[in-house]
Each structure stands twice: as structure tokens, then as C-alpha cells.
Amino acid sequence: MRFVLTDEQREFAHSLDALLRAADTPGVLRAWAAGDHGPGRALWRRLGNAGVFALAVPEAYGGVGPLPVEAAVACVELGRYAVPGPVAETLAAGVLLAGAGGPAAKEWLPGIASGAAMVSLRLPGHGPYALNADAADAVFTVDGDGLRRAPGPGELSVSADPARRLFRPGPGGEPVAGGRAVEAASRAAGDWASFATAALALGCGEELLRATVAYVKQRRQFGVPVGSFQAVKHRLADTLLGLEFARPLLYGAAVELTEELSGGRAEAGSPEPGAGIGSGTGPAEGTPGSGLGTGRGAGPLGAGSRTGPGMGSLGAGAAVAAAKAAAGEAGYAAARTALQLHGAIGYTEELDLAWWLRRARPLRDAWGTPSACRARVLAG
User: Fold this and answer.
1) Which member of 120, 206, 269, 282 lies 3.0 to 4.6 Å from 86 by CB, making a disulfide possible if both were Cys?
2) Share of the chain residues as helix, strand and coil, in percent rounded to the nearest 5
3) What pTM, to 2 d.p., does this model score?
4) Cβ 148 vs Cβ 141: under 8 Å
């Protein structure tokens, strides 16, 4: 299997990177965790203007999607900058409401597409929590074949990441839709939530590795940089390999979702010899960068075109599960490497890195733990 992002997709990633680099996301995260959602909502609207949330909303409702490959590109960037808020849930809500149809789709989807609306979800089979329900404009829950709008955020539960506040929506609420369409839309939305979370986890792991490489090049022991030690190089190389092996699974899942939506083979993009979406740099040379450049060292991964045997036999759901397991584990492994090489200072407020460290494990387990995802892959 060989994937290559198109020039337009790479430019989209670069534009999001520039937007988020100027946004002071550590400051936004601190405000969000303290209950001040203003800076986060302002950033959310800017991301909406950039077209991020429109990627999961059909054109009939003001969106441009569903476009899984572009959604993966966007979520990797948002994961690299630890953007707060129910990103995966809002994207999945676009799929859920579009599939369920009815007045709620007309009411909420244009706002989701533009970034004016922030939505959280609770779906069967994915735990009892709705992420950041206190900040969301609406919380939708599915029980059986019934879709409801929850009456409120519900009970707050403890989370490892103070910016990922978990709530248990209460029973009842306004009925929105029902029937088989809701069941099918709920399954599709669950796949999208898992897929988007996998991309967020991959981006989080990339940033953890980048920050760790920069740190070990500066920290010195015995008169030399720590990064020159063979054991440190090996640990960083293993971390990089985990992230780069997860990347083709993520984009393979994007292709499978695209094919599922179109009912046939995806034809976006075309192979380019020697091109890929890795940075082409390893721990010894520098940092992984954005993970969306066109270097050679990371392998030929990317967007829409396939050659040779691929993941088609898995089906979209199993492909998403494979991507979620690999990306979640790779992101968490990057956090463990970062903590080991930074030491306890990594968990202090002295370093912004603490926000990424706290986020890696929740992203690993949200919308499908590694064991649950592997079981789904084995079940086909």
C-alpha cells in the first residue's frame, strides 16, 4: 500500500500549522482547564473558518464533506497543538446528525460546519461519558435506535487530563430522531470519533517526540548532550518507528472510509516516487516536524491512492480500529519516552509539555481502547 497527500492537502496542513502556532495553545489549555472557555471557543471559530469541522458535514448542510483524508490531516495538526474541546465528538456529530436526518440536522449541522457550534456525544458501546459537555452547545446521546439531546452536561467525573473534562449525561432529554437510520448513523459516528481520536493521538505523539528530541540535545551529562547516548537514541528511534508505523494505518482507514462513503475505490491523489508524508528526519538529525512534509526517511504514506494489496479486506470499521490501536499506543509510548527523558519536571507546570503528557493516555483509551480495537480487527 502506498499513499501520497496531494499538494492541496499538504497546503491545508501547513495553513493549520501556521494558524495554531500563533494561537498560544498552552495558554488556551490552561484557561480551558480553569473553566474559562472563551479563548478556546475563539480558536474553535477560527478553525471553523479554516474549514476543519465542515469536513464531516455534507454540502447540503453547509459543509464540504464527508472527507476522511482531509479530516485526518486536520486532526493530526490539532493533536500536535493539543487543541482543547470535543474535536472528535463534534466531527462525529456531523456524521450522526446527517445520517439521522430530520429537523436537528438542519438546525445544528450548519453551525457545526462553520465552527459556531460545539457538540459532544455519548454513543452506545463507547462508555458513559460525554467530553467537555459543560462547554458544548449541545450533547447528543443515542440509546438503542433513539437519538436525544441531553437535558444538561450531567455529573462531572475525574479525568487524567484537566482540559478533557468528562461528564455523565443524565437520562431523558429532547427526542431528536429514531429508527434504523439512527442505529446506522450511530455506528458510522462511532467510527468517525475513533478515527479522529486516532489522528489526534498521532499528532500528540509527534509533538511529544519533537519536544523530547529538542530537550535531549540541550540537556548535558558528563559534559555531553544526553541525546548522544546510545540508549537514548534507541529509545527515541523506537518511539519514532511506532508513530510512523501508525501513520499508514490512519490514512489507510481514511481511504476505507472514503470508499465506504462512495461505494467504490477512492481515487484522490496519485503515487509520486519518493514522496511521503513523513518528515524524513530521525532522532539523530532533528525532530519529526509536522509529519506532513515530503521527505523520504519516514516511508511512503499518504492520502487516497493505493497500489498493491491493501486493507480493503478489513472493511472500514476494522481499518479504523487498527488505526486507533496503533496510533493510541504509539502516542502513549511517546509520552512514556518523554517522561523518562525529561524526568519528573515533565509533569510540572514549569513545562507546557505536561499538557501533552496528560493527554496521551486519555486519547489512547477514548473511543476504543487498544484491546477493544484489536478484538474488532480480529472479528473482521
Assistant:
1) 120
2) 55, 10, 35
3) 0.87
4) yes
